[in-house]
Specification:
698 residues; alpha/beta; OB fold (Dihydrolipoamide Acetyltransferase, E2P); Rossmann fold; seven-stranded mixed beta sheet; seven-stranded parallel beta sheet; 22 strands; binds adenosine-5'-diphosphate; binds magnesium ion
Length: 698
């Protein structure tokens, strides 16, 4: 027997094949359940009567009340209109009709009190309502009025008479039939603990709330449920993976000890030490590690990665480090090679531009186990790249890699999947990280190495460029180096941006004839980029004009100034990443954000935020608020895309709560066998059957 909520929408009274077709096509509504989950996008408030002197031009319709004190027709012919005026104790407002004038004139009476509902429009200092809903005021009735749901519909639907009001009627009908069929999905102890509405009540109240308080409770309940089941799923997956996937145990630490004793170039920060301990525990546990390592730019993730690699190598396993760009992988390779050479560890580099002969040699040495560590780009993922015993994969700057790539790395070991450490400098707020990477453990380096001076950031308009150049010159005379960055997206370089960059380069060369200037952009050949980067790193060139290719990871400690051109075109997290290229040495560093004088409100907020703080997490929070979570998740793990009511950027606390509840439940009852969890088990099974339709009603 088919489930009531799976019934085709066509069979709901008042729908039929034609409307069903519309609902399918326009709203993706196919079943009773779908319709019930097509929630109002706003509500009209008829529970409040707005005093006439408090009218504002608002999006939603408002309700007012007053006595009709004047009425007359104005204009003639096509321009004729009827203007009425109602008055309350606080003021007056005009009501205007262009059509049906005779009828309105007949039914309205002077000195009668009317309730009027519509959208107020401002004309100078006055407001009017055109073609409002109007009815005689009946004392006592206003309190029965409630919030009226408004449903989003398409133009086509409106033309076919399936507008918000028609949907409202359908919802009412459906809810009447549904009342006794909705099953509770949460355990009663949770409902009690949080004073949450039952599922049935919540569904009713989200469509037809008695008042705002009920609406809020309904929303909270449905959001909680949605987040709870997402988290439950993620946590269960993590649990079952831990049972399924063994991990190599890295017990020996001989080389690591030598490294600590003899070669460590600085004292590790406490945060670095803590994270290393967390990872050490993972690689001793016998279970495959899947850990996300978050650390603001410059927090020192690379050395942590190297130390973990040593753990693998010390136990006869191999390690690889994958970076998103060629420049970055070259830099990692060069940095790590210095350490590796001291310790007699074999390390090599594999990128898209590695020559065939060299490639073959690398493949060979990987298979024989002679090569311990391989650094590279996506090229590492190719099937021909096979290891003798891959024990650890480090992925740098995760935001450019998707889940798919992660799983391809897993496959590189036939029996025991390698441990995976994903490093990201995109400081994702912890709550968001939890929902995006619910299946990963998260470690955070929340401390910068000692002695770093906070970067000073300024915002300057384009017309102050000469003064900015003056400042640059002074710093360069002190021995510093500078980056000047132009927006240019590597994959879709358009001509105009390219020209901006070239013009910028030319004017810099003209303004600083006494210094060598480097340029790096996405259209250059990798070896040319590398050559220019090297010149800059060696302090042969003083200024680096570049596009965002330098965004990730590049490390030149003597470069202490960063000028970002057209800063308004960058997102906050990108600005923060860019800024992280300076402030790496002992000198005071500066970041100058250049923008047009005309700025949108969001751009202004971004500039202000950058000038106010260096804290990546604070910046990420603002970013999340400005952009919403969708953008940030990008190619990362989906799961939040399906959220219907909850909004990660606004419901962070609820998310934490839901996750904690899910965790506690699984701790007590991993298989959901307890009678008190029967509801939950049922819902999980249903969701699995339906594939991920998180909010599916049972
Ligand atoms: P990120 O986390 O952005 O990848 P890096 O690993 O590139 O940062 O480190 C930034 C710089 O800080 C490097 O020059 C590195 O050698 C240095 N560094 C890392 N850890 C420490 C530390 N504990 N003390 C001093 N300098 C450190
Ligand atoms: Mg890095």
């Amino acid at each position: 027997m088919s489930h009531f909520f799976d019934s085709k929408i066509e069979y709901l009274k008042g729908v039929g094949p034609k409307r069903a077709n519309l609902l399918n096509k326009e709203l993706d509504v196919f079943t009773f359940g779908d319709l019930l989950q097509y929630y109002p996008f706003r509500y009209e408030d008829r529970s409040r009567v707005c005093p006439l002197n408090e009218l504002e031009e608002v999006e939603a319709s408002v309700q007012v009340r007053g006595r009709l004190v004047r009425m007359k027709t104005e204009g003639a012919g096509k321009k004729q209109r009827l203007v009425g005026v109602i008055r309350d104790e606080t003021g007056e407002v005009e009501l205007v009709w262009f059509k049906g004038i005779k009828f309105v004139q007949k039914v309205l009476q002077y000195n009668m009190e009317y309730t009027v509902f519509g959208k107020p429009k401002r004309f100078g200092s006055r407001f009017n309502f055109s073609h409002p809903e109007i009815e005689p005021y009946v004392a006592g009735r206003e309190f029965k009025a409630t919030l009226t749901p408004v449903y989003q519909t398409s133009e086509l639907m409106k033309r076919m008479m399936l507008d918000s009001k028609a949907l409202l009627k359908l919802q009412r009908k459906l809810l009447a039939e549904t009342a006794d069929k909705v099953h509770e999905t949460l355990p009663s102890y949770l409902l009690d603990q949080y004073g949450m509405l039952s599922k049935g009540k919540a569904l009713e109240a989200i469509h037809f709330p008695e008042n705002d308080k009920m609406l809020q409770r309904a929303k909270a309940r449905l959001k909680f449920e949605e987040l709870f089941f997402v988290q439950l799923k993620l946590l269960r997956e993590k649990h079952s993976r831990q049972l399924k996937f063994k991990g190599q145990v890295f017990k020996a630490i001989d080389t690591l000890t030598t490294f600590y004793k003899e070669h460590l170039p600085f004292d590790l920060t406490n945060a670095q030490k803590r994270v290393i301990k967390e990872i050490r525990k993972d690689v001793l546990s016998g279970v495959q590690m899947n850990r996300l390592l978050q650390g603001d730019v410059g927090s020192g993730k690379t050395i942590v990665a190297f130390i973990v690699m040593l753990m693998a190598v010390d136990n006869g396993a191999q390690a690889c480090l994958m970076a998103p760009t060629e420049i970055l992988s070259i830099q990692h390779y060069q940095g790590l090679k210095e350490f590796a050479d001291m310790l007699g560890i074999q390390i090599d580099l594999l990128t898209g531009s590695t020559k065939t002969a060299k490639r073959r040699e690398i493949h060979q040495r990987l298979l024989s186990g002679e090569l311990h560590v391989l650094v590279g780009t996506h090229a590492l993922l190719e099937d021909v790249v096979q290891f003798k015993n891959l024990g650890l994969c480090v992925i740098d700057e995760q935001h450019r890699f998707g889940v798919k790539q992660r799983s391809r790395l897993w496959g590189k070991h036939k029996t025991i999947p390698p441990h995976v450490l994903v490093m990201t400098a995109t400081p994702i707020p912890r709550t968001l990280a939890m929902s995006l990477y619910g299946d990963l453990d998260v470690s955070v380096i929340d401390e910068l190495p000692a002695g770093r001076k906070p970067i000073q950031t300024f915002h300057r308009f384009d017309n102050h460029r000469l003064r900015v150049f003056g400042f640059l010159r002074k710093e360069i005379e002190k021995g510093r180096q500078a980056y000047i960055v132009y927006p240019l997206i590597e994959s879709s370089e358009n001509m105009e941006q390219y020209k901006d960059l070239m013009d910028g380069h030319e004017s810099i060369c003209r303004a600083f004839p006494e210094y060598q200037v480097s340029i790096v952009h996405g259209r250059m050949r990798p070896e040319d980029k590398d050559y220019e980067m090297k010149r800059f790193a060696k302090n042969e060139t003083k200024i680096m004009v570049a596009t965002t290719v330098i965004e990730v990871g590049v490390n030149v400690p003597n470069a202490s100034i960063m000028v970002i051109e057209n800063a308004e075109r960058f997102g906050l997290s990108q600005l923060h990443q860019l800024r992280g290229r300076v402030g790496r040495g002992a000198e005071q560093s500066y970041c100058v954000l250049m923008t047009n004088v005309k700025l949108s409100k969001d751009s202004r907020t971004r500039m202000e935020t950058m000038c106010r703080t260096n804290n990546g997490f604070e910046i990420a929070d603002v970013d999340l608020k400005l952009r919403g979570p969708g953008d940030i998740s990008g190619t990362m793990q989906s799961g939040i895309a399906d959220l219907k009511v909850a909004d990660i950027s606004k419901d962070a606390r609820l998310l934490q709560e839901a996750r904690a509840c899910a965790q506690k439940m699984l701790d007590e009852d991993p298989e959901l066998k307890m009678p008190s969890h029967a509801n939950v088990k049922r819902q999980v099974e249903l969701m699995n059957k339906h594939h991920i339709n998180w909010g599916m009603i049972s």
